[in-house]
Give the backbone structure.
Amino acid sequence: MNRSDFPILNQQVHGKPLVYFDNAATSQKPQCVIDAISEAYSTWNANIHRGTHHLSQVATAKHEEARTILANMIGAKSSKEVLFTRGTTEGLNMLAFSFGEAFIRSGDEITVSAMEHHSNIVPWQMLCQRKNAVLRVIPLRDDLTLDLAAYEHLLSPRTKLVSIAHVSNVLGIINPVEEIIRLAHAHNVPVCVDGAQSAPHLPVNVQALDCDFFVCSGHKMYAPTGIGLLYGKEQWLNQLPPYQGGGEMIQHVSWEGTTYNELPYRFEAGTPDYVGSYAWGVAAQYMQQCGIETIAAHEKQLIAYAEQQLNALAAELSSQISRIAIYAAGQKKAGVLSFNIYDAAGNLIHPFDLGTLLDQLGVAVRIGHHCAEPLITHLQVPGTIRISFGLYNTTDEVDLLIAALKRAIQILV
Ligand code: PMP
């Protein structure tokens, strides 16, 4: 893993070396991905699938090769099962619409968890409103892990789909999705896994997980913005109606009606982001060269180190602060860590104030509800400070964060 592959990291912010700890929002891009975009527009850009001419054929081949690379990366049985989307959010909206049209009736239930991102809540709420269905929520235990006993009780003949985050974008907790899927399948209920925060950090194999659907975003995986994927088992995708009409999703169009194309094109209306897919393929190969297991191990070590250093900071500053609350401390996590700091009187130091001062010291973190408002409400705080790692982050940067927090606390307390 070579940090110098990422040109953006080599800069100063407010006169300080940039520490980029906002990878859960989006990752930075290696030079090979930046070059791939430039190469596409400099040498082979043409609209795909419709051309007899050379450039169109090259572009089509690049787009389809990328689909194969990504299908292999997530362990899909066939590249037909990988549909390109604009990102995780669009994948979940596609699924909510198409699955909803095919399978959801009045009184049916869809189950999500209390730690979901809004993208895995709102499309289901909208579907429930359209179909007069009911959204059920798996509660959290005191340690913020999912209450699997309560989940088992929620599964019933009314349950039609479970949609669950693989890794929480606030807590970083790796959810026991294998177990969740096994229990759902015992009731013949399909499961969608929101992999927005797992695919960048962990090896994913959709066949080993046995999930029915899986969504993720390229931009969190060192690829450009505007490209993501929805994986679905072929037997499920074949039962779903298209999400949008137009472009290559058709077989024949006449005034009498339209017949639809085969998988995966049936779900890809309009000109796809073939430059984005190509660059994502390059990013996926870059991750594979680094070794996804190696990335996972490196980031796990960063999380353990950060938790340890935050605890050490709390001990060192015990006269100024009463505690640093690390959420889901010590749980199995990937990529993400959230915390809050309380002053000596036990009052929360507002994460916004800390985030603003950290930025002045060159450290980019995210503060707020992280698009998971129900979880933040459950935590009874206005927000958290979230640090999230990429393959290029280092323990030295964690040390810079700790030094910056120390400065910020001294200013604020
Ligand atoms: N789900 C989770 C768990 C996420 O972390 C995110 C991104 N923050 C999303 C969904 C939405 O991803 P995107 O904005 O790329 O569509």
